[in-house]
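Example record

One chain of 201 residues, shown exactly as stored in the release files.
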Amino acid sequence: MHIKTTKCNRFCLVASVTNQEVFNRPEAQASFEGLFRSFDPEVQFQYFKSFRRVRISFSDALAAAEARLRLHKTDFNGKEMRLYFAQSVHIGSPRLEPPKPDKQFLISPPASPPVGWEQSQDATPVINYDLLCAISKLGPGEKYELHTATPTTPSVVVHVCDDERGDSSAPDDSDQDDKPRQPRPKIIQTRRPDFAPGVEQ
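Predicted structure tokens for this chain:
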């Protein structure tokens, strides 16, 4: 569990300035910095225009406390200026801690197989050669009964379809040349719906 702690920096003040001239005009900045240099000549300033804040770093904690005591809620160019001690927020531990021991799936090595384990061989596929032989001997229009019907189960019969393609792979018979070939059925495409201009896409 991460612990959030707040520590006050006794050497640093944060000034809340509503007067925009401090961030835009060098003369206003020099006047603003002169207020704090009277307490500590080595004071440093950091301006944050978008936040309307100025970070003021002192070399002496007593000088920072005295400046805050005398200048807090005072007027600067007609606007009130407020001073606060800067605070540093620390979350968690200062060192990078290792991950928790539970559920380390990505860094854990794969488990080893047990002693004596051997990979099983795939079984040979079952091929009914008698069935393949019987089907190969059938001609167009003939049938082959695979399973005889019983009082509780139906029979299973294989029917061989007639070859109506009429390609070069079909056997050449004179009877087939005399009969007219049936036209192939035409595939009808699905009609596209009518466009409705009033419907927004």
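Notes: DSSP finds five helices and seven strands in the chain.
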